[in-house]
Design a protein that fits this description.
The chain has about 200 residues and is α+β, with helices and mostly antiparallel strands. The chain is built from five helices and nine strands; from the N terminus they run H-E-H-H-E-E-E-H-E-H-E-E-E-E.
Length: about 200
């Protein structure tokens, strides 16, 4: 019997995919696995996403995106698959597609904020101290209900075959292995971001 996950088509997201993408993300958000994404946000960031399409039904059964944070730092975002497609390796294929995109763009480091440490470790990611990540990483945190008690695990994958980006701060600034500028920031009780101190 053919492997359904292996038959699934991975392709760049299209505008017509957004309602299905939003539904898949909403399902995972209801389980507390990620933040929801509005249709407007998905349309705005559409070029960042790859989707998994069932070749028999044309149904979108998964998605994953690459957000570019800095010259040498990207982030795996919105990795989600439908309940029926879970546990068959489709998530790994989606992340691999996003990592290939990052490699093609010359982005040396790709991070993820996740609850699935073992999954990302199998894909070459390592745990890093999330408090030392660049402030831009935390832009969505202001809207998160867990902003004052975040329990996500920060992980990073470094492709050593890609040279450090020209003009980036030297490796070792902030988190070892990260070269995006680091700004100390924290969320205040009212949800605003305080930079410094």
């Amino acid at each position: 019997m053919p492997d359904a996950a292996a038959e699934t088509i991975l392709r760049p997201a299209r505008a017509a995919d957004v309602p299905a993408m939003a539904a898949i993300v909403a399902d995972s958000a209801e389980l507390g696995l990620m933040l929801p994404k509005s249709h407007a946000t998905l349309y705005e960031k559409l070029r960042n996403y790859v989707v998994a399409e069932d070749p028999h039904t044309g149904e979108i059964v998964g998605l994953c995106g690459l957000s570019i944070i800095w010259a040498d730092l990207g982030e795996v975002v919105s990795l989600a698959v439908t309940p029926a497609a879970r546990g068959r390796g489709l998530g790994a294929r989606l992340v691999d597609a996003v990592l290939a995109d990052a490699d093609g763009l010359g982005i040396r480091r790709v991070m993820s904020l996740t609850y699935e440490q073992r999954f990302f470790e199998r894909l070459g990611f390592s745990v890093v101290d999330r408090q030392k990540l660049p402030m831009k990483v935390w832009a969505e945190c202001v809207a998160c209900p867990k902003k004052h008690a975040c329990d996500e695990i920060a992980m990073i994958r470094v492709n050593a075959s890609i040279p450090p980006a020209v003009g980036s701060p030297a490796p070792g600034v902030g988190v070892p292995g990260l070269s995006a500028p680091v700004v100390t920031a924290r969320l205040t009780r009212d949800g605003s971001v305080m930079v410094g101190g």
